[in-house]
Amino acid sequence: MEYGPAAPSYYNSRLPSGQIYRIHDNFEILTEILPSDRARDADRSAMIIPHSAAIDLAPLIMILHFIPLSRKALLNFGTEIVNDFGYDESWWAGALIDMSDQLDDNGSDSGSDDESNASMSKRLIVECQRLMAFLDGGSKRSFATLDNLLLDIPSDYKSIFNGQVRSNDNTIGLFLKSLTKYWGENNDLSNVFRATVISHDSENEIPLCNLSVEVPSNSPRSLYQIIDEMIWPDGIYENWFVKVPDILTLTFKRGDEQSGTGFAIPEFWRPDRYKKDSIPSVKWMMERQSEVENQLAILRNKKYKLLNYQGKSVVKFLDVSVDYFKEMKTRSKDNELIELNEIEKDDPLSETMDELILIRNKWDSKIRDITETIMHLEQELEQIILLNERGELKCEASSGDTVKLRDYILSGVILSPTEFYIRTKKSQLIDDDKIEWYKFHYNAAPGTSCVVEKVTIEKVIEIVTIGSVEYSAQEVSVVYTSSEAWDDVHRISLPPKLDEFIVLDRMAFEDELSRESDPIVLADREHIESQEFDLEDKIKTEEFS
After folding, report:
1. Is 63 helix (H, G, I), strand (E, B) or coil?
2. SS3 category, 424
3. Of all helices (H) and strands (E), which one includes residue 470?
4. Phi, psi of 391 (to 5 degrees)
5. In this structure, which topology does domain 8-270+406-482+496-513 adopt according to CATH?
């Protein structure tokens, strides 16, 4: 066992820790690992092994397990759809648990695609319930695979899952779509994950389970700038979200084939900005920003022309001219060429100087007025840009109020198939809830380890911007959640039959551990290992000879 950058006491009980696990998505290799090497310490979290046929699902399911509402949803809100969950002592390594007698509709043998997909959808729900229960830690096993879950993906989605390259509708979206397909429309469970969108080229609401975001090659200022241009291209406000779910996933794809997002994603995001009720404020802000930018361009050009003529400073010319006539007047007085009262009345030098001073003062006043107007417009533009970057909305100038939108919390990041980040929350009785982030990192080679270590949210955002160092042109997926999704009211207990499954699994695993420590078993293992060693030694000797 190894730890991250701090001592074991640094980590909270039952939260992710620095424990490392040997991993491999191969049944034979997994089952050869000794039970004692597969045991989970009491203060360590259970893990799901990444699978090459669905590279995002293991990280996604682990992220969703830590969010109370999504865990509750993947437990089917605590409702069981089978009389029992079956059992196989090697289910965790990928052995299929046969549930056909309970899940095939009415025992039908017609074999139609609709019936097959309906059965698979039910199996998918059951397997999600199993995985949520397993991640709770009751079985005492360290890790499990996704094999049973992948068998239960409806057939019309399997062509996507079986590839190792993400498609436009990637595994995250298809997995969540598979769940909502079983739950159906306008269901509380579906509403946890599924957004609905109105598009100008469609009369019907379009369901959306994962927002695919194309990041332009130029450097965007913010997430809002990108999605504004994606949802409202050319300033046409004919698309909007009808409903924003409590759990919303986004996958970023770089146009320059680089990893990472290329810009800093926010810790808090406000997707309600893209609902229909927000469009008037967004439209006014965008139009006002355009007006201010045009006014600034005109005023800056006007100021430049006032200050310069043929590349020369007009103000400097006026100052020099006034100074010149002042000097000429002083010389005239010193030489006593004319009387003072006559100078004040009739001296052309004085008249010219006074006119120049008047012109210069008017010029200065005009420049000051333009400069002050530019300053106010720049402040207004800066405020509008800042509000847009924060996702805040401002009403028209008559009221000037900002529109309050819900904060969605960055709750998980999938940087690559072998590196992801999870937000955790530990409720406190007196103090504020304790929020912590953990990095999960698997070495790329099969059969190697996973290290879990504590990180800051600032580090997470920095790493998401840069991207994976192991995978080039790698999309980044993030999970945003409403604050409601983290409410402890959603922390439900396992339903009875599912709890029985975990108890049975724990008993089976404890029996494995007991058999491993049996002296006879130990002697047999030592004998087998000795024979293997002798055989290897004999082969090497023969090769040397």
Report:
1. helix
2. strand
3. none
4. 75, 15
5. Cathepsin B; Chain A (3.90.70)
Q: What's the pLDDT at 244?
A: 93
pTM of the model: 0.78
Helices 113-135 & 496-516, crossing angle to 10 degrees? 60
Largest CA distance in the chain: 131
355-367 pLDDT per residue, tens? 666 766 777 788 8
Place of tokens 């579906």: 190
How far is the C-alpha of 443 from the C-alpha of 470, rounded, in Å?
Answer: 10
Helix (H) or strand (E) holding 188: none
What are the helix and strand counts (H, E) for the chain?
18, 17
Confirm if 452 and 17 have CB atoms less than 8 A apart: yes
CB 440 within 8 A of CB 49: no
Mean pLDDT of the region 389-402: 63
Q: For position 122, what pLDDT does the model report?
A: 85
Record the tokens describing residue 514, joined without a space.
């007991």
Contact of 206 with 197, CB cutoff 8 Å: yes
Q: At what angle do helices 171-183 and 57-66 cross, to 10 degrees?
A: 60
Distance (Å, whole) CA 118 – CA 135: 26
- Listed by start position, the domains of the chain span 8-270+406-482+496-513, 280-403
Instruction: DSSP for 195-252, please give it.
Output: EEEE-TT-SS-EEESSEEEEEPSS--S-HHHHHHHHHSGGG----EEEE--SEEEEEE
291: enclosing H helix or E strand: helix 279-307
The interaxial angle of helices 279-307 and 314-334, nearest 10 deg, is 40
What is the spatial distance between Cα 7 and Cα 18, in angstroms, rounded to a whole number?
A: 9
> Given CA atoms 218, 224, 229, 230 in this order, what sign does their dihedral have?
positive
Q: Given this model, what pLDDT does residue 464 score? A: 93
Q: Which of 57-71, 223-237, 295-309, 322-336 has the lowest mean pLDDT?
A: 322-336
Q: Taking Cα atoms as reference points, which of 424, 487, 488, 485 lies closest to residue 457?
A: 424
pLDDT band at 405 (very low <50, low <70, confident <90, very high): confident
Are the C-beta atoms of 88 and 96 separated by less than 8 Å?
yes
**H or E stretch covering 442:** strand 434-442
Query: Among 512, 511, 447, which Cα is nearest to 34's?
Result: 512
pLDDT exceeding 70 applies to what percent of the chain? 69
d(CA 126, CA 75): 8
Structure tokens at 351: 């008249």
H helix intervals, 347-456: 348-390
CA gap 46, 62 in Å, rounded: 9
Residue with tokens 């790329």: 444
pLDDT of residue 355: 67
Separation CA 346–CA 363 (nearest Å): 26
Spatial CA neighbour of 353 closest among 331, 370, 337: 331
Q: What is the mean pLDDT of the chain?
A: 77
